[in-house]
Amino acid sequence: VVLWSSNNPAVATVSTSGLVSSLAPGIAIIEGTSEGITGSATITVLPVPVAAVAVTLSSSTMAIGTSQQATAVTRDAAGGLLAGRAITWRTGDPSIASVSAAGQVQAVSQGSTTVIAESEGQSGSALLTVQSSGVAITGITPSTLVPGAPATIAVTGFDPATGGTSVTIRGTAA
User: Fold this and answer.
1) What is the 3-state secondary structure (H, E, C) of the chain?
2) Cβ 167 vs Cβ 138: under 8 Å
3) Distance CA 73, CA 124 (A)
4) Does this model's pTM top 0.70?
5) CA dist 92 to 14, 88, 122, 170, Å?
6) Which one of 48, 85, 143, 155 has the minimum C-beta count within 10 Å?
7) What digits encode the pLDDT tens for the residues 28-44?
């Protein structure tokens, strides 16, 4: 008759027949005792590896100068959710968009790039398109301004029918 035991049953248990079952990552010592003689084995239970990473953006289109939070989900080979895994962020083209270590995406310049999350050698990405912010000043007439005198500001990308009736310049409506 062998009496089996585990010193860390939160990590691994052992049945009365000696069958070891892993429960959580960590280290456990399994002991078997028979007729006053004890033998032991140390086992290491590894975490289930990441098989896939999925990246989600709240919007696939951003305007220059705006930001949004990206999210990443890690899954095992069976599609089960793996929580608490370390994620490393980057973009395919940092001149178009940058991303912080926490997944905060910042639109830098016009174009398309990918937002990429990596975990345990696996990666996933989402396509991001950065567009101009819309309104651009193309000219001011007269070019020399006098306090209190009217001036005309020419812009592109401003549509009063859909964008209102004023443009804000440095915090002042014009």
Assistant:
1) CCEEEECCCCCEEECCCCCEEECCCEEEEEEEEECCEEEEEEEEECCCCCCEEEEECCCCEEECCCEEECEEEEECCCCCEECCCCCEEEECCCCCEEECCCCEEEECCCEEEEEEEEECCEEEEEEEEEECCCCEEEEEECCCCCCCCCCEEEEECCCHHHHCCCCEECCEEC
2) no
3) 9
4) no
5) 48, 13, 16, 32
6) 143
7) 999 999 999 999 999 99
